Amino acid sequence: MFGRSDNFCEVYSDALDFLDGCGEFFGNDAASVKEENELYILRKHPCVIFGIDEDSLKKSVINSDKKSQIISKYAKFLYSNAKNTRTEHIIFSEEGLREFFELDEFYEFNKQLTYPLSKETRKMCYARILEYAKEHSFIEHCMLRSTLLDRGDACMANIWTDGRMLFMFNFENGYRIMLIKEKSIANSLIEYIRFFRECGILCSRKETIEVMQEAYDKYCK
């Protein structure tokens, strides 16, 4: 029975392997992926991938024989997730917001995969996501005031309400991308995140936009 069961977890150490394997593992093309899914994206720093233009994205990926494939397939990955998701909750930390502007070298992902984003590119991307946060409720930015996201090797966590989970870990000489499918674990993590709001350590959308605007006025003007 164990041998015939679906895989619970997959781990990748190569971006292209991940992009080729995640659709089959998660079943992104199956009817089981519904538009009412919600996605929780946890990162230390603001997620600026939504504000980066195609040209900047191409420049950010490290040159390799896989570069064009990675860019093409990652764009499809983002589109597929956006199409099949009702709301994306992007959660970052107060410390991560400060670091985003002050770090000399900032990587959206791992340094083995991307070049650092310059401060000017960061400011441009940040301005775009701030405007998007103000105008659209589809992507909800929320800031966590505690240090939960400021420690360890985890770069990000994506948790869907249908039980899909993606974790990325950064190491000195590489990275690992872990995929998990288990609805009860995902639901427990989401309930934990929602509890932060009840405790007052997770800012509301309105409060987060105000803090993001203050950071923009301080660092970008």
Could you describe the 3D structure shown?
This protein is α/β, with parallel strands linked by helices and 221 residues long. It has helices at 15-26, 54-60, 67-83, 94-102, 119-135, 183-199, 205-219, and strands spanning 9-12, 38-43, 87-93, 139-144, 154-160, 164-171, 174-181. It has a seven-stranded mixed beta sheet, sandwiched between helices. A hairpin with a 3-residue loop joins strand 5 and strand 6. Helix 1 runs parallel beside helix 3 (67-83) and helix 5 packs antiparallel against helix 7 (205-219). The longest helix has 17 residues, at 67-83. The model has no long low-confidence stretch (mean pLDDT 88).
Q: Return the average pLDDT rounded to an integer.
A: 88
Radius of gyration: 17 Å
- How would the global form be characterised? globular
Question: What profile does the largest beta sheet have?
Answer: 7 strands, mixed
Number of separate helices: 7
Low-confidence stretches: none
Strand content: 15-25%
Total strands: 7
First-residue to last-residue Cα separation? 61 Å
Biggest sheet strand line-up: 1-7-6-5-2-3-4
Instruction: Name the helicity range.
Output: 40-55%
What order do the SSEs take from the amino end to the carboxyl end, as H and E? EHEHHEHHEEEEHH
Q: Which class of secondary structure composition applies to the elements?
A: alpha/beta
